[in-house]
Amino acid sequence: MAFCTAKIHAATPQSDSTLQVLHWWTSASERKAASLLAARMADEGITWRDAGIPGGAGIGAGKVLKSRVLANDAPEVTQIIGVSIREWADLGFLLELDKVAAANKWNTSFFPTIQNLIQHRKHVVAAPLGIHRINTLFYNKKIFSTLKLSPPENWDELVMVAAKLKAAGLIPLAQSSEPWQVATLFENLILAEGGPEYHRELFVRQNAQAVMDKRFSHALERLRQMKSWMNNPVDERPWTEVVRQFSKNEAAMMITGDWVKGELNDGGFVTDEAFSCTAMPGTGKYHLYSVDTFSMFTNDYSRIAAQEKLARLVATPAVQVDYNAVKGSVSVRRDADPARMDSCARASWNAFAQGATTQAPSLVHRMATDETSKDAIIAVIHRYFIDATVSPSDTQARLVAMYKTFGNNKKQTP
């Protein structure tokens, strides 16, 4: 991002206790989670001025934020996640929350990965809200029970389950051809093929040699095989429509992030009753993660007290429990009580708690790399998915060339 580092100022005067919050929580369950936070803020005397931007994976919100910063009209609070936090902090726009972190003992309350994520040059610049597990397989309990199917734990079992579902006249897998949703499925396959370390080689270190590994071509082949388990044709739909297909018993499984759990529960399709979840086959020990965070823009120093109050509030044990139960995510706190979580949340929290060796930062959700690299990688995978004439070797060659370009650009960056 090429912005000047001059401080920005809000265009419209507001009360010092009013904070505009830019985010991409626009589905029914996400709005409920946002409303919960707004109500907790109101209890603290802070008004939440909503600026929700539609668009899966925050694509639209990112564009809106950049345009507003250029127009000197940045919101006081913004949902910024992953590598994007460091990018904005590098430009000098983010409020340092060191006093809040120290007073509330964030350094011992949060998991180490969360601590690293919210810091930039030894300063805390974001407040964490919740952890999403991206490698989650959701399955319809009634359909599985009727067909006497068990949740698949490895690839061969997944293939067998899909075959039996197709034989019964059912769509095995609910899926959209929207680029970020395709890439989400693919990085699940990468994690299953090579674990967290291989996932990091590919998407964090962007190692061109790793792209030529057989595990990469296997993941591509399996992605194409899975396409035959989906709608024909696989249309481009928002994730909420994919969830709706699953909740109407029109598809037996979904593989995606656990935010869909909040949407299912909100629609009356209840966890551990209508559906349950397991890890993506082959990834049972791993956690492909995305972390929701808020950062505060230093556009109006009169609102620092309110911004710090919000940062403190969202990380408190009580808000963590209530917010994550609605959102479908799990607490960022090490002292959370897994006994108060449903089975899906408990599995997610326990997997994340095992530490860095079991964790993989999601490519699609900005945890692994910068926005430009992310978008370019997703485009290559999406092209392979939608065009049957593109071979795995073509895709590998294209990505290798791209990684070499990324490397050259980094070397030339002062």
Features:
414 residues; 18 helices; four-stranded mixed sheet; disordered N terminus; alpha/beta; D-Maltodextrin-Binding Protein, domain 2
Describe the protein.
With 414 residues, the chain is α/β, with parallel strands linked by helices. It has a domain at 18-131 and 291-354: D-Maltodextrin-Binding Protein, domain 2 (3-Layer(aba) Sandwich), CATH 3.40.190.10. Helix content is 49%, strand content 14%. It contains 18 helices and twelve strands. The protein has helices at residues 28-43, 59-70, 83-90, 98-103, 106-109, 112-117, 141-146, 155-167, 179-203, 208-211, 214-227, 239-247, 259-266, 304-314, 317-327, 343-353, 371-386, 392-412; strands spanning 18-23, 47-52, 77-79, 119-120, 123-124, 127-133, 136-140, 171-173, 251-256, 275-279, 287-296, 359-361. The strands form three sheets. Strands 1, 2, 3, 6, 11 and 12 form a six-stranded mixed beta sheet that branches. The chain has a four-stranded mixed beta sheet with strand order 8-9-7-10. β4 (119-120) and β5 (123-124) form a beta hairpin. The radius of gyration is 21 Å and the shape is globular. Residues 1-13 have low confidence and may be disordered.
